[in-house]
Request: fold
Amino acid sequence: MGGAPAAPADGGAGERVARTRAVLVGVFGRELSRLAAEDHLDELERLVETAGGVVVARALQERPSPDPATYVGRGKVAEVVEAARALDAGWTVFDDELSPSQIRNLEKELPGQVLDRANVILQIFAARARSREAKTQVELARLEYLLPRLAGRSGLAQQRGGGAFRAGGGEKQLELDRRRVRRRIAALKEELVKIERSRGVRRRGLRHVATVGLVGYTNAGKTTLFNRLTSSAEFAEDRLFATLDPRHARMKGVGGRPIVVTDTVGFLRKLPHALVASFRSTLLEVEEADLLVHVVDASSPQAEDQRRVAEEVLAELGVEADRVLLVYNKADRPEAAHAGTGELRISAATGEGLETLRAAVVSRLEAAGIPVPLPATGPRT
Reply:
């Protein structure tokens, strides 16, 4: 909105990337306590940092519900304007998805760029996407987010993540931009149908093996666990959305049983609806797995809230609770002492509890009637 945030400042070749100063804005009230709103802003700060910004101030407003015109109300907007100017902030980032009218009203008042959580997440996904499928999914999500926000938005026409959409004045140019965006959306949907067909062929090839999907909140340690369970060396880092594309590999340490593990994209509260819809083919990996290992970061202060968010996403995908094995990861960290004490606790980083996890996976699969026999030649790793 008013332009896109810079690509995530990962750095490279020793180069330091200048970070944009950002002010965060949230609302608490009838449905969200102040403490919960502060937690949401903590997560939003991590998102902004991942997108290349640095947070210099926060503003929270108590309201029964967000103001339909400005999200926080005119008085609070004036305070945010003053803070943004005093701190030379280039971004003002709101914790919820803003409506097109809220964006237009806020940009009349605020200096720099007006962003919302959805826009920041989409930018991070765009920078993280590596495969053809992920790039297609993210571009589709960004354009579907953009389309209703084109009216009166000269800068938004440049947020295409792909096609050549030139901003221009007047209703004629606006309608041309809309038509181009709609045509590109249609083309991307056709592309995803083709990709899904090829993915379906790969899934059919897994019919004769048991499949286990790793799911959970972003940055819970799923990829590190995937590497441990399968002896793989996939990229894993302590950052949000390090993994977008599903990876598959055979589980080791289960006597040679035919079990394939899939690493999937992480969940997050307030994910943009367009992003969830465009990643539908990827999320089929979750829906069709024989067993899901729900990985929770036991060291996070928001561990239980993150567990609930992931459970809500799984429920929306139609995943039955009895198909989920709950596991608390990062048990080696001191701050994990009180999280999930009655559940299976592991450390993907140190290997603690992984033998117990493997045994639990085999047991749950067999209890569900999924055949996981030992190979005829005898036990193998």
